[in-house]
Amino acid sequence: MTKGKTAQLYLRFPGLYAAPDEVEFRCENGWFDLLLELSESLASLAGAAGLQPGDADYPRVTTVKEKFGHLRVYTTAGKSLRSEITDLLNEFELRSAQVCEVCGLPGTTQRLGGARLTLCAHCVQRPTDW
User: Are 25 and 64 in contact (CB under 8 A)?
Assistant: First the structure.
């Protein structure tokens, strides 16, 4: 994900995303809208539970990456929201399997070379190092 996209997340959700050197981003821009929606859901969930950024149980994103063609987001959070956060992360991981990780258009998970990637019909045709 580009620095411009990650900067948007840091600015919009400072409670969820620590300093730039503390969060690992290893995915393409195509999943940015999913990640934005997930971040909104995590912040809303924490707010509904009465948590504020900085509280021990407030969720913090530590890693955002592609794994086996799906979006994986790892967080730290206290016990009070662990189950709900896990459900949200699983939901968005499943949704990512239908969104091109490069451009954000509808896509499917495919095996290309030794990798599994979720790509649209256009991006799968692009010459790359798959």
Answer: yes
